[in-house]
């Protein structure tokens, strides 16, 4: 498709520059031409080139009946683990291996089948949904009549007839409506969640065509940009042929009706299809986002590489030792196992490589293929606990939490930085009117209720009565507020009704309605004034302002402009307002002469008719028009903090997270919100890195001054040491604005000695308890998140917001959370998780995130542990069978170990385990620190689990080996064979790894008992059936009666019990000793929970956090009653014990009541429970000081 040049209308005659780039689609260089009603243009006007467009079928499914198997197999075998097992299976088929191909093939088949069934079922549901949409009826105008056809048969260029409350079948350009003014009302709730009615406009020259015959007579073409996903941008133009001469009109987003939106309060419309099927904006927005990977998944892959290296090492060592063993000819070819001639002639390298592959097959079960499918099921099923949580249900909105990406559940337990928007996220986004300032005079209403000025209340100045000039400015100010907007009054609200509701009209001026392109307002004398609306210069987040051009009844032309103070002040030439720490909206105006208005019209028409780069040209035109303004005044509103927002931020701080507020508001307003939300405290020393300061000093000097300030206080220690402990040392809060941030982020110049400011900025931020970034553009929010993500610590980040301007940072952060606020659903649609209110973030992180991380960490470590226990005896067995690749276990045991015998208990554990009660997790946020920085999947813990697995394997193998030395092992004196030996080892293995999981379980329910003990019973029953029946489909049955014979031996029972005990004992002893000497906070609470002390402690903790107790009250005195009920002397517990989580064990307190500064420490809250019986004297004599 080629870019078209056109010789018609306005800027068409100047032609298009095909190389220019369209806004929103950087690589777009061509347009599409649509012939309305599939009609050719008049002869001689332009060449008719019929372009091919897709039909209107929506395809959200991934597979078809024919490509499901090959496509699904390809996707599954792209996974390293699946591909590895496929190779092992093929090796078993090709060469003579010690184990049956079934042992590798069946588990692989199980994993592949389960995944394929799950994905196939999900795709079948998508097919059903697609068919229901594609087959729904639509009405199309053909040959002057309305005909009915299926939605999938709709084509680009068809004129569609849509009735009220019907959904638009594709993206349409509005031609005409049932309303005389050519407007229609639409709700886009299914697209962006906004339920309010939006107004769309028909093309000016076609809005009078209201019948099928009239619409069918339209002769026009539409040129527009190629499809792109931005819901709020559209660039196009329509050529309407009248007497073979085209009239060009611009088309924008106000003319575009999107698929999925619903027609409201309008009887019918006629519109032409321009984007169909998978090219509609709704379909383009369904494309998957960039895949995010959690820290746990990265750890899993690293562990997998280690185990793969161990596997190769085992196979290599065994291959070498085999040929060392066979160096003796008698061992190489014993009399009972002569080689064939072909075997003797094979080259030794080929024989060695074949043996290496055979050993790889023998030991391949150390790689847990079923772990991946278990992790997938755990994440998928676990995500429902967030959606089912009644505490995260908001009755006001009627919404629950939503999980869009279950792959990141455990990442919720690893968050170190929280980046939050302010308006609508921390606040309610409900602006309450406080006051207004006109020409330097402040006006305050008499009575305000819920932010609304009560009828008849009146507005009076605080200081003096206005003079004549001030009175004129006052009236102009209120007129500007009534006219400078795009509000649509509900049609049922008549002018008489509005006037009746206003009573005597003492509020000044009231906007009534827009009728026939005239805006009607009611003045103080109850007279209706009419202003012709000539132009609307729309609002956008970059300009941060909007304007209207109106003509009064006297013929005067006004440009009224309103917007943020930062965007209005640079454009005014006179006027003043008083500024406070409130959210302000500045209002300005400019009188236009007829000549100036003509120039404005010329600028705007040229920009609006541009097909390419229209947004840039409009912005340039607006910039030229909105200048030389006279400032009239400003309104001040206040946005209330959301319920429990301050408590949530305080809890996040105590959990060790750093909270940054990223907002587009001005500094004073944002700082006030930060104080109200407890992000900043009274004793927080504010550091400013703003434009105002950098104007006085160079950026280089300011940064180094701030760096010296924070580092001098902390003595080189980063703030992470003290994070979340308020009052322990000087708190620093940083405030930075968008302009200064741009300078900080700017790459260093080659000829400059300033260096890179990013590292200095990061160092300052690390030592601040909170950071406020104000005057931020949406892209800058994402840059901040990216900067912190890329820092040397590589912290886990979370971004939370409610509007479209937060989408960029939500997508950039490791975890993106959307708020179901009043700014639509753009943030929710692009997020990983969505919650109704900011307060729900507390439970999502501190409870659900904590649980998810604990559960999946145990799952991953346990899977590797049980596979080491499983396969290491096989490795040891080769030293006793001449490295002959003889398997230790039966084929059935090899196949079912990971699929059946040990899979369900760990899956259930990973779904419902609660190592600490959730009420405790909510009351004591500091417990979140115990799992910070992926602490449960670090290499030392991984090595411990691996060593534990090796130890258990050695105990199982050599314990059974030495017990087998007794020749009278059975009652009849028979000796056990190698299959009995392997069965004994396998029995001890299954019971040991299952009991190990049972010992790690803290939260017992009937389901746990059923699954854990049921798995063991299933193993025993299966073994009895497998070895107790002659199976007709088996050529040989080496396990026949083996299990029964083993159980008939008393020594076998004794050895099973002894070996299980010996295998579990070291882990139990280690836990007991560690908990006694170096307990973590989590382990302390688990111990106290056993004695029933935790609720009392946490109640006092809660009182301390809320200020009901003095922080300097010895908490031991509060525990006297609880302490008197404890058993035993408690002498050991009173001693101060070192702890594993040492950085968090003591708080540093800086005291100033002494002559010289003294740094002392006091025991954390839970430690006081140990010393409940101690007197004050006892504390004074102890190793730590109680303050």
Automatic annotation (TrEMBL):
Molecular function via GO: ATP binding; ATP hydrolysis activity; magnesium ion binding; phosphatidylserine floppase activity
UniProt EC number: 7.6.2.1
Residues the entry annotates as binding ATP: 421-423, 539, 562, 583, 663-665, 775, 781, 805-806
Xref: InterPro entries: ATPase_P-typ_cyto_dom_N, ATPase_P-typ_P_site, ATPase_P-typ_TM_dom_sf, ATPase_P-typ_transduc_dom_A_sf, ATPase_P-type_domA, HAD-like_sf, HAD_sf, P-type_ATPase_IV
P-type ATPase N-terminal domain: residues covered: 50-104
Cofactor: Mg(2+)
Domain of life: Eukaryota
Membrane-crossing segments per the record: 77-95, 302-325, 356-375, 892-912, 942-964, 976-998, 1010-1034, 1040-1065
Domain P-type ATPase A: 137-210
The protein's name: Phospholipid-transporting ATPase
Keyword ATP-binding: yes
Subcellular locations according to the entry: Cell membrane; Early endosome; Endoplasmic reticulum membrane; Membrane
Active-site feature positions: 421
């Amino acid at each position: 498709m080629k870019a078209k040049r056109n010789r018609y209308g306005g800027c068409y005659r100047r032609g298009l520059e095909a190389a220019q780039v369209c806004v929103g689609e950087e690589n777009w260089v061509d347009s599409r031409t649509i012939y309305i009603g599939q009609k050719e243009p008049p002869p001689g006007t332009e060449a008719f080139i019929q372009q091919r467009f897709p039909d209107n079928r929506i395809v959200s499914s991934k597979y078809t009946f024919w490509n499901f198997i090959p496509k699904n197999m390809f996707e599954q075998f792209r996974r390293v683990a699946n591909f590895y097992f496929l190779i092992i299976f093929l090796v078993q088929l090709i060469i003579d291996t010690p184990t049956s191909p079934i042992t590798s093939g069946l588990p692989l088949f199980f994993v592949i089948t389960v995944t394929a069934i799950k994905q196939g079922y999900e795709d079948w549901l998508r097919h059903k949904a697609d068919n229901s949409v594609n087959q729904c009826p639509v009405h199309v105008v053909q040959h002057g009549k309305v005909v009915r056809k299926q939605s999938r048969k709709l084509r680009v260029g068809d004129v569609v007839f849509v009735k009220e409350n019907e959904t638009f079948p594709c993206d349409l350009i509005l031609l005409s409506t049932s309303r005389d003014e050519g407007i229609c009302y639409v709700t886009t709730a299914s697209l962006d969640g906004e339920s309010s009615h939006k107004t769309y406009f028909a093309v000016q020259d076609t809005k009078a065509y209201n019948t099928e015959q009239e619409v069918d007579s339209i002769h026009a073409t539409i040129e527009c940009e190629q499809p792109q996903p931005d819901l709020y941008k559209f660039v196009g133009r329509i050529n309407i042929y009248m007497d073979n001469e085209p009239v060009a009109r611009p088309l924008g987003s106000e003319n575009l009706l999107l698929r999925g939106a619903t027609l409201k309060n309008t009887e019918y419309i006629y519109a032409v299809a321009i984007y169909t099927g998978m090219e509609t904006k709704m379909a383009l927005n369904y494309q998957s986002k960039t895949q995010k990977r959690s820290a746990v998944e990265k750890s899993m892959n690293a562990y997998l590489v280690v185990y793969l290296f161990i596997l190769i090492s085992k196979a290599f060592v065994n291959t070498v030792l085999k040929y060392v063993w066979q160096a003796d000819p008698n061992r190489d070819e014993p009399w009972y196992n002569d080689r064939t001639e072909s075997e003797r002639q094979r080259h030794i390298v080929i024989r060695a490589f074949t043996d290496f592959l055979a050993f790889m097959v023998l030991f391949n079960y150390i790689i847990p293929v079923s772990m991946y499918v278990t992790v997938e099921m755990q994440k998928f099923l676990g995500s429902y606990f967030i959606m089912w949580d009644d505490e995260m249900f908001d009755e006001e909105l009627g919404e629950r939490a939503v999980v869009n990406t279950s792959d990141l559940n455990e990442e919720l337990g690893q968050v170190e930085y929280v980046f939050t928007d302010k308006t609508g996220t921390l606040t309610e986004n409900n602006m309450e009117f406080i006051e207004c300032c006109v020409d330097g005079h402040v006006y305050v209403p008499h009575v305000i209720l819920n932010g609304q000025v009560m009828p008849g209340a009146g507005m009076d100045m605080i200081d003096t009565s206005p003079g004549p000039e001030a009175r004129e400015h006052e009236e102009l100010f209120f007129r500007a507020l009534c006219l400078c907007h795009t509000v649509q009054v509900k049609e049922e609200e008549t002018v008489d009704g509005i006037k009746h509701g206003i009573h005597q009209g003492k509020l000044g001026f009231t906007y009534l309605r827009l009728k026939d392109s005239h805006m009607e307002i009611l003045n103080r004398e109850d007279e209706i004034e009419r202003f012709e609306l000539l132009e609307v210069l729309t609002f956008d987040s970059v300009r941060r302002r909007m304007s209207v051009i109106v003509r009064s009844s006297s013929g005067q032309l006004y440009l009224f402009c309103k917007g943020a103070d930062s965007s209005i002040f640079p454009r005014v030439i006179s006027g003043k307002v008083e500024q406070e720490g409130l959210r302000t909206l500045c209002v300005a105006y400019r009188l236009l002469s007829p000549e100036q208005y003509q120039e404005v019209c010329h600028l705007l028409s040229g920009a609006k008719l541009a097909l390419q780069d229209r947004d840039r040209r409009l912005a340039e035109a607006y910039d030229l028009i909105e200048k030389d303004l006279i400032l009239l005044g400003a309104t001040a509103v206040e946005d209330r903090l959301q319920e429990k927002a301050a408590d949530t931020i305080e809890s996040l701080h105590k959990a060790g997270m750093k909270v940054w507020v990223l907002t587009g508001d001005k500094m004073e307003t944002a700082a006030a919100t930060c104080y109200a939300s407890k992000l900043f405290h009274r004793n927080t020393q504010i550091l400013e890195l703003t434009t105002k300061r950098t104007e006085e000093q160079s950026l280089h000097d300011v940064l180094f001054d701030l760096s010296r300030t924070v580092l001098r206080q902390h003595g080189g220690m980063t703030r992470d040491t003290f994070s979340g402990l308020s009052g322990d040392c000087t708190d620093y809060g940083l405030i930075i604005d968008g302009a200064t941030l741009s300078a900080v982020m700017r790459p260093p110049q080659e000829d400059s000695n300033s260096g890179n400011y990013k590292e200095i900025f990061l160092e300052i931020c690390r030592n601040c308890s909170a950071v406020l970034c104000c005057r931020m553009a949406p892209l800058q929010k994402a840059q901040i998140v990216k900067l912190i993500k890329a820092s040397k610590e590589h912290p886990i980040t979370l971004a939370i917001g409610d509007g479209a301007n937060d989408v960029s940072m939500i997508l950039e952060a490791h975890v993106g959370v959307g708020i179901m606020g009043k700014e639509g659903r753009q943030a929710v649609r692009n997020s990983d998780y969505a919650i109704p209110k900011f307060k729900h973030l507390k439970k999502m992180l501190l409870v659900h995130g904590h649980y998810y991380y604990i559960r999946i960490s145990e799952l991953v470590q346990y899977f590797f542990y049980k596979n080491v226990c499983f396969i290491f005896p096989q490795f040891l067995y080769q030293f006793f069978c001449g490295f002959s690749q003889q398997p230790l276990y039966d084929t059935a045991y090899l196949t079912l170990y990971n699929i059946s015998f040990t899979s369900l208990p760990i899956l259930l554990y990973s779904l419902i385990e609660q190592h600490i009660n959730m009420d405790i997790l909510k009351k004591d946020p500091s417990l979140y620190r115990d799992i910070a920085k992926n602490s449960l999947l670090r290499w030392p813990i991984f090595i411990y689990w691996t060593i534990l697995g090796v130890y258990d394997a050695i105990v199982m193998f050599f314990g059974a080996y030495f017990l087998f030395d007794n020749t009278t092992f059975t009652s009849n004196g028979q000796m056990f064979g190698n299959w009995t030996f392997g069965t004994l080892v396998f029995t001890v293995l299954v019971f040991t790894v299952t009991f190990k999981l049972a010992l790690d379980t803290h939260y017992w329910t009937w389901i746990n008992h059923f699954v854990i003990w049921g798995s063991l019973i299933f193993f025993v029953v299966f073994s009895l059936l497998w070895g107790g029946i002659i199976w007709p489909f088996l050529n040989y049955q080496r396990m026949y009666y083996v299990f029964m014979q083993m159980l008939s031996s008393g020594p076998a029972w004794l050895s099973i019990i002894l070996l299980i005990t010996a295998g579990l004992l070291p882990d139990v002893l280690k836990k007991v000793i560690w908990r006694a000497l170096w307990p973590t906070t989590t382990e302390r609470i688990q111990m106290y929970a056993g004695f029933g002390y935790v609720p009392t402690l946490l109640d006092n903790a809660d009182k301390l956090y809320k200020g009901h107790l003095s922080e300097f009250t010895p908490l031991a005195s509060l525990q006297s009653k609880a302490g008197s009920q404890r058993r035993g002397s408690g002498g050991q517990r009173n001693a101060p014990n070192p702890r594993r989580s040492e950085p968090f064990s003591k708080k540093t307190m800086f005291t100033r009541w002494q002559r010289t500064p003294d740094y002392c420490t006091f025991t954390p809250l839970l430690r006081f429970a140990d010393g409940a019986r101690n007197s004050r004297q006892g504390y004074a004599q102890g190793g730590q000081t109680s303050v």
